[in-house]
Input
Amino acid sequence: MHVVVNAAQSVDGKLATRRREQLRISGAEDFDRVDRVRAAADAVLVGVGTVLADDPHLTLDEEDRRVERLRNGRPGNPARVVADSTGRTPTDARILDDAATTYLLVSPATPVERREALEEAGAEILVVGADESGGDESEDHESGDDGHVDLASGINALAARGVGRLMVEGGGEVIASCFAAGLVDELHVYVGSLVIGGRDAPTLADGEGFTESFPRLDLVGTERLDDGIVLSYEVAGD
Ligand SMILES: NC(=O)C1=CN([C@@H]2O[C@H](COP(=O)(O)OP(=O)(O)OC[C@H]3O[C@@H](n4cnc5c(N)ncnc54)[C@H](OP(=O)(O)O)[C@@H]3O)[C@@H](O)[C@H]2O)C=CC1
Ligand SMILES: Nc1nc(O)c(N)c(N[C@@H]2O[C@H](COP(=O)(O)O)[C@@H](O)[C@H]2O)n1
Output
């Protein structure tokens, strides 16, 4: 599985305001780039925090890209995936429409009735088990997962359904967990020319944070778009 993380942040590293409302950080040129990255992916993943805050659709904007995918024998839109341990995705969320397959990665803690309601609303439920690495106050654990669904298991379940390239669009909690689990291959960050501020505003990588062993990145590209810059990285090997 090849995992590509993409996000837009302010100069001070924030993905949104402290109110966690969707904010346009980039512009038309960057949204077109994001659409290209989506078009290359088999699936696009977000955390349930992003679904609750933004109600995103996560489909392609450009019809030509959908047509090209169909011509290549792929679904018109990439599948949509939500990391959602207890099934908090609203049944009227936009990602549950029929524009693409939508997988919800839930833990066994999600009640059967909730799973059934979400299936009825259009979701494919994948029960993938909770992450066991968090929750012990005595350890300096760096995963920050604390009983959320185990993303590595989720990715294996997606691979078994034909997903070879996964785009992760956020938010900060899920991106942090992806780095903590060593799942990320590429990172693309659009840095918009604004300061958002706020100690409680989401950042590119929230979670518990790292204290000893930090994911290291190789800068492989820079591109000026709109009034900002896209920084492209590959995750450095050990
Ligand atoms: N500028 C940008 O590019 C983007 C900005 N955003 C912004 O980010 C904010 C949302 O980010 P954030 O609040 O961090 O939410 P996330 O989208 O990262 O979702 C976090 C939630 O995902 C669930 N989850 C399931 N499994 C995991 C796991 N293994 N690790 C971590 N979380 C997991 C948890 O809920 P549970 O335990 O219930 O499963 C958790 O609370 C919004 O304000 C949105 O606008 C979002 C995307 C892109
Ligand atoms: N790349 C990017 N640039 C911005 O300026 C943004 N505000 C975001 N936000 C994320 O984009 C997703 C919206 O998806 P749809 O347009 O509904 O398909 C959502 O995840 C936002 O948080 N991204």
Summary: The first helix runs from residue 28 to 40. Helices lie at 28-40, 48-54, 63-71, 112-120, 151-159, 172-180. The pocket of LIKH6CAM (ligand 2) is lined by residues 8, 22-26, 30, 34, 46, 50, 54, 56-58, 169-170, 190 (CB under 6 Å). Confidence is low (pLDDT under 50) at residues 134-145.
